[in-house]
Amino acid sequence: MPDRPEIVCICGSTRFMDEIRTVNRDLTLAGVIVVAPGEADELITDKQKKTLDALHLRKIDLADRVLIVNPGGYIGESTSREIDYARATGKPISFTDPAPAAT
After folding, report:
1. Which of 86, 103, 92 is closest to 65 using CA atoms?
2. pLDDT in tens, 10-21
3. What does the domain layout of the chain look like in residue ranges?
């Protein structure tokens, strides 16, 4: 048994929050520490969006690996930046749906 549970950072479009919550629950019940996108019930300002985007990169730093929640293969602009960041920092990346072709 490892000294500590695996830490997984979930990334994905906030349009898929239901799917992200399901993945979060499943991983948590499997004994994984999950860090996930922040949620807001109301519209956020551009400044708040920039803050949340920067905070999510720090969550990637904390993780052992990154899991992209991408129903139908969808990868948005923010998630693409997070994938690039994770790759640049050497984090293993996996996808819930087939990974899009590299461009």
Report:
1. 92
2. 999 989 999 999
3. 1-9+20-40
